[in-house]
Design brief:
255 residues, three-stranded antiparallel beta sheet, 7 helices, 13 strands, elongated
Length: 255
């Protein structure tokens, strides 16, 4: 059996993650059942060597930015030594919401959070399996605020996978457009307001206007029309809830 001298106290053994484990069943040197002493009381088979070295892993340990944890279930972070697609999406989502160094260069994510259910990777991976799809020659994005405009919470009810070209339709460029409404700039040469929008990575000029509001209304009309055009182009390839959100999208002057 394990020698008493390696115990921290009362037959408990400390892990490198900072938990205590208790031996509940000893079969042989390489087959020992231990119970992790936290609220989950998870039991795992391990060996004496791992116990001595503190290498018993707790699947409920919040190892990803002090928030995310693997949980217990069928979904793995790696298959054949390669990160799974679901794990990469999950880890990136957690990073956007809880990594302060990432948020220094992407401050738009500072108010964003992930629902408690998705702190557990198993729950996210199950949702991923039921909702992920691909479109040829497109990069898929996990979006939180097209189904519900202005939403800041990643959750099963608010998220949808979106091809990158559709996701880019909703970039508002807050940091570069100044104090003007979305789609509007001021042309000093003509002393008029210019309405422009991005179409397939190219700037399309809509028109010049005497006042800011008229320029915005022109942008709003053309942009909403274009969003509907793109929605209908991809209608057979995207989820219905995404299509419906695109068709009812309303651009407001304070977006």
């Amino acid at each position: 059996m394990i020698k008493k001298s390696i115990c921290d106290y009362d037959g408990l053994y400390r892990t490198n993650e900072g938990y205590f484990v208790k031996v509940v069943e000893y079969n042989n040197y390489d087959n020992v059942i231990v119970e992790i002493q936290d609220e989950h009381k998870y039991r795992v088979k391990t060996g004496i060597g791992n116990i001595k070295k503190g290498k018993v892993k707790n699947p409920y340990h919040r190892s990803v930015h002090n928030v995310g944890y693997m949980g217990v279930g069928e979904y793995k972070s790696r298959i054949n030594y390669k990160l799974t697609k679901s794990y990469k999406f999950w880890k990136s989502m957690i990073q956007r919401c809880y990594d302060e160094s990432f948020q220094r260069t992407h401050p738009e994510y500072i108010p964003c959070t992930v629902c408690e259910e998705w702190h557990n990777y198993q729950n996210f991976a199950r949702w991923f399996d039921n909702n992920y799809y691909e479109i040829e020659n497109r990069i898929m994005n996990l979006d939180k605020d097209i189904l519900y405009k202005g939403n800041k919470i990643y959750s099963p009810n608010t998220c949808v996978f979106v091809p990158d070209n559709i996701n880019l339709l909703f970039a508002n460029h807050n940091t570069s457009r100044g104090n003007f409404p979305i789609g509007v700039t001021f042309d000093k040469k003509s002393s008029k307001y210019s309405a422009k929008m991005n179409v397939e990575n190219k700037t399309t000029h809509i028109g010049m206007y005497d006042n800011c509001e008229d320029a915005f209304l022109a942008y709003k009309f053309e942009k909403e029309k274009y969003i509907k055009k793109v929605a209908n182009k991809y209608k057979s390839q995207i989820p219905k809830n995404l299509y419906d959100a695109l068709m009812r999208w309303n651009i407001e002057i304070d977006d």
